[in-house]
Each structure stands twice: as structure tokens, then as C-alpha cells.
């Protein structure tokens, strides 16, 4: 801190002032990001953050993602960002659509109770269903596509409906669609030489939606660990602040002392993962068709 600002604020001169950074990048640091670990910030949309060594990346530019910046996440590493334009918002949209029938009912405790319980009941029934190769397939582009290859003009879709299709079946298909969209990002990055062995998840969905998280683990066919911290982005910022203030010599030491532990882990079910392999191919076919229509 300069003498002028120290005088203005009544603080000692020389106090370290750390610069700001992107919240999602700090969240990845709070979640102990490292090469091979994809950090997923999961809420209304998703933000996917990972790092790789400069020797692993070389001079390559990873195409079709949101960003690639040297040192943007961890010093000495290349940072990468991707994500989905809608995730939890898709579930909220479906609830809103089903709640259309309540539009003429006066607002009050009873109406709110129905709204609050709708996703709970949809989840309860959807998670009791086993995935089927012949089931409903949905496309998670209701708010455009962020990764791979950003395009806000594309639209979502639901296919395979019959007169016997139920609301929980459609809801399950929407959950699977968000997981398939996540897998497409992972495969896109891995296809360009980036290593992804596991996922660390933060954000509201990761803590409040076990059905969604298990489905994601089954679709990705890799373990997903949920970070315990409730404020992982703030934690990452605090870790860098501790380094700037001289409490720790570097971010690695700060991570060892301040990093959050894991509160839950979701491991893929082999049987469901095999079914999702086939459903994922249908998802890709639906995506290709939707692009021609849009």
C-alpha cells in the first residue's frame, strides 16, 4: 500500500494488496484444482475449470472452449475454462412449465408448498426408474450452447415422447441431458490432448441434488468428489490473499493448510454406465439434427 492510501485509510504503509481474479477460477483453487482434475461449478449453469502443465500443452490452442490463459488459475500452469449455458435452470424451467396450471390459484402458503415440492416429487420418481435405451432423450440447449463451440442460437429438444410418457420420465431425460452435455465437454477437451481423470464439484447442485450427481458420475463413467466448503470461491481468494500477505510462501503451501476436504463421492455404476453409452450416442444424433433445424 502506498503512503498516500495508507494515510487515507489509516493503515500501515507496505500492506500487501492482492489483485482480483475471476470467481470461478478462485473456486477451482479453493477446490484444490490440479492437473487431471476437472473442477465443475454447478448451479443454474456450469463453469468447468482445469489446469495443465505448459509442457503438456506446448503451443497448442484448445479449440471450442471459453478460454485458455497462462496463469489464470494457478501460477505456472495453463488455465482452461468451459461450461454449459444452462444446468439447474433447465430443471427450474420444467417445474415452471408444469406449474402453469397453478397460474390462476392465488399466491399463498398452499401454492408455494406445491411449487417447493414439485422437484422433490419429480426427483423421487425419476430416480426410481432405471435408464433405458428406448427412453426419452433430451438436448440441453434451452439457453444455447456454451461449450463446445459457443452458439447461443441453438435450441433444446426432447425426443422419444409417447402418449404414455410421464412427467418424471421427461424430468429424468432432462437430468440425463445435462449430464450428456457435461460429457461432451469432457470428451471435447480430452480429444485435444487434455488429461481428465476425475471431477471435483462445487456449487448448489453438487450439494443438494444427489440424483443429478450420481447420474453425472454414471454418464461420465468417472468418480465425482463434492468439496465440503460452502464458499469455495471465497476460500480460493483467501488462499491467494494468504500468499500475498506472506503467510504462506506459495499457493501449494496455502492449499495444504487451507484447502477444503471432500464431503461426498459419487462413483459410476457399471450397469448404468453401459446403458448411458448407447443413450449418449442418441444424444449426439439429436444434437446434430437440432443444429440443422436451427
Automatic annotation (TrEMBL):
It holds the Pfam family FGGY_C. Residues 41-245 form the Carbohydrate kinase FGGY C-terminal domain. The keyword Kinase applies. GO terms for cellular component: cytoplasm. This is L-ribulokinase. The lineage of its organism: Bacteria, Pseudomonadati, Bacteroidota, Bacteroidia, Bacteroidales. GO terms for molecular function: D-ribulokinase activity. InterPro entries: ATPase_NBD, Carb_kinase_FGGY_CS, FGGY_C. Keywords: Kinase, Transferase. One of its GO terms (biological process) is pentose metabolic process.
